[in-house]
Give the backbone structure.
Amino acid sequence: ARRAAGPGQVHRYDDAVRQQRDRREALRADLAGALDRGELRLVFQPVVDLVLQRTVTVEALLRWRHPVYGEVSPAEFVPLAEESALITELGRWVLHEACTTVAALPGTELAVAVNVSARQLHGGSLGADVLAALDASGLPSRRLFLELTESMLLDDDAVIEELEALRQLGIRIAVDDFGTGWSSLAYLVGLPVDTLKMDRQFLAGVEHDQQRQALCRAVLHLGASLGLPVVVEGVEGDAEASLLRDMGHRYLQGFALSRPMEAAQLAAGGWPTGLPTAAVAPSPR
Ligand code: C2E
Ligand code: MG
Ligand code: MG
Ligand code: MG
């Protein structure tokens, strides 16, 4: 709807809407060739185990450097890829690239987590694509996690069977953005799932607010009562990181520990082993 404003402002509003639409259409058109033009790459964000004091997994995150728009977020272009069969092709490339990169790291048991989109999961070739990526890279299946969101696990026997088959081979399944689909909590029991990743939104304001802290604790306890490890994602500040450590929480991922790293940086072995010094130090009174 248009804002009630002077004619000049209406113009600016229309311009903004048009610009947004033009950008989306340009991105949609360009995405198809982005892979062949070498504009896509993966970055890798560490998941740190505070008990073992080391990075145990890295999450592969897709990046697109567009010749005109610069770095475009996957939050913007993955949904465009999902509109067509393109997501299957991208997903296959991501699996292959992620497994190859991590398999090539010398002397490590690091696992890699790959995000899977709904259309890819329902497309029917996920199992074959996963096996092809493991085969080509030589990565042992136990070092691969697939990240799926809650809604993707609902009411689909074919999907559950395919995931069950992948788990039989040693591949692990993580529920991404966990807690954002509370309406369907009962779905978790008995599902083929190995890990939960608590959504970033549960951390918002957690250092200052008792109620938010209680909610965060409840989500973590839920995972524990289901016998599933929980990764807290989006740990942005040192205060949040220390709070989670004080709560006895084990697996953290976020800017406070490490930003996503380029493949070369990962190969150089610069991943974190624990909390940053600022978060480890006792908080000032
Ligand atoms: P996600 O799987 O939940 O990934 C976590 C997102 O949170 C990443 O955003 C990561 O960069 C960001 N993040 C990590 N730590 C922090 C923090 O401390 N603070 C803040 N503010 N953000 C943090 P990114 O890389 O932009 O990816 C966005 C989403 O795009 C992902 O959310 C995932 O759903 C999707 N995505 C990324 N790569 C792929 C892919 O290869 N395939 C598919 N299907 N989806 C992907
Ligand atoms: Mg993810
Ligand atoms: Mg996530
Ligand atoms: Mg998330």
In short: The two ends are 50 Å apart (CA to CA). The pocket of C2E (ligand 1) is lined by residues 45, 61-62, 73-75, 78, 94, 115-117, 147, 176-177, 233-236, 254-255, 260 (CB under 6 Å). The chain has a mean pLDDT of 90. The first helix runs from residue 7 to 34.
